[in-house]
From TrEMBL:
This is VanZ-like domain-containing protein. Residues 30-93 form the VanZ-like domain. The chain crosses the membrane at residues 24-42, 49-69, 81-101. Keywords: Membrane, Transmembrane, Transmembrane helix. It comes from the Bacteria. Pfam families: VanZ (PF04892).
Amino acid sequence: MCAALYFAALASLAFVNAPGSNGRLWVWTTLAFIPVGAFLVCMFGRRRWWAALAFSIVAAAWLEAAQTVWMPVGYADVADIVLASIGAGVGVSSAAGIAVWRERSRRTHISPRAQAVGNLASNRRASASNSAAPLNLDR
């Protein structure tokens, strides 16, 4: 729900005419796409970080294309796509880095009981798969 509201706000703010910005909106463009990249990594998973980055770049390009159609001449800029892609890249890399860090910390902090249960289950599998048919020595 929060993600849907954020994307709706991002799309609506992309069409607000900002008079007198004098080039200061590059910070907004970069910062606005950091959560987009992080959300898409959470949605796709950290192994598909490249898809999250690609969708973020496509979203930035789509917003600029829509601004070209519906906003006054000169409002859309290719530099905004680059800045949004940088922001999305920061979001993707931070979300993927946090996911890797959490996974590693979970692996190193396994309780002894859970580790013993896991070892018992793997020993059962190993003994079941290594058992051979008994030899018939009655001949």
